[in-house]
Amino acid sequence: MKMSNLIRFDEFEVKPSHVDIKKGIRLPTEYSDDLAYFCGILAGDGHIELNLDKQRYGIHCSGNPLDEKPLYFDVLLPLLKKLFNLEVKVKDFHSGTFGFEFGSKWIATYLTQILGLPSNNKYNQLKIPFWIKENQPFLKSYIRGLADTDFCLTLKKRYKSLPYYPVITGASKSRAYMEEIASALELLGLKVSRSFDIVQKDIRFKRGFSIIHRIHIYGPTQLISWMKMIGFASPKHLNKFQLWQARNVNSDRLKVKIALVAATKLEN
Predict the structure, then answer these.
(1) How far is CA 202 from CA 205, 207, 229, in A?
(2) Which CATH code, of 3.40.309.10, 3.20.20.80, 3.10.28.10, 3.60.20.40, is assigned to 18-122?
(3) How far is CA 80 from CA 23, 76, 236, in A?
(4) Could you tell me which of 212, 188, 200, 20 has the C-alpha nearest to residue 110?
(5) 166 close to 219: Cβ distance less than 8 angstroms
(6) Which of 119, 121, 122, 167 has the smallest count of CB within 10 Å of its CB?
(7) 136-267 maps to which CATH number?
(8) Tell me: the pLDDT tens digits for 199-230?
(9) CA distance 35 to 32
């Protein structure tokens, strides 16, 4: 049976505050690609604080100020306005990151209780929400949001002097979550490599290291499959995709030529 796109609020008892009402904030009443994408963004670079006992609740999302400001200005701020009729300001944080944060018990409980997103320490709770996992278009939008924040598209040199070979890489502190994302991508038809339990130096931890889990998608053919199926909205990733095209325009490899033709069709 196909799941209805209408969101059920049967057991949702939290009401908007006077501030929420004054701001004109609204909650989406239907599941959508935009809502799934925003959930992917929060899974990547977001944090939901929800402590009702201490009356502490809010949404925080931040990235690298060197190359992710266009994502916030051009994509995320308009998305917050579209989804919640919410206008927020972006800023530089003391941690050296850049993004937005706002307090709303109404939105924080909606995101966690209704949409199934994790709160507080998210890494031991991360998983693809049920309503997204059961709907392939929503799943693609969710992974796009995650990739725009927590994935990278890099070009490797391999056997040439100029980096040209594309690799999409995603990383998380949660092995279970990366495995779930990898499995979802494989079900969509992509080829995924896993590099789990990687120990890397990290002075932020007392033990001096952290453990990270990565997935990789290699090569021009898989890159085009990704762009057709999932794509990027982040200007940073789209610029790197254009750089890949430019650096391979004179390639004599048949696979690359086919991929470049497919890339041209994507833009038309």
Answers:
(1) 6, 8, 35
(2) 3.10.28.10
(3) 13, 6, 20
(4) 20
(5) yes
(6) 121
(7) 3.10.28.10
(8) 876 666 567 677 899 999 999 999 999 999 99
(9) 5
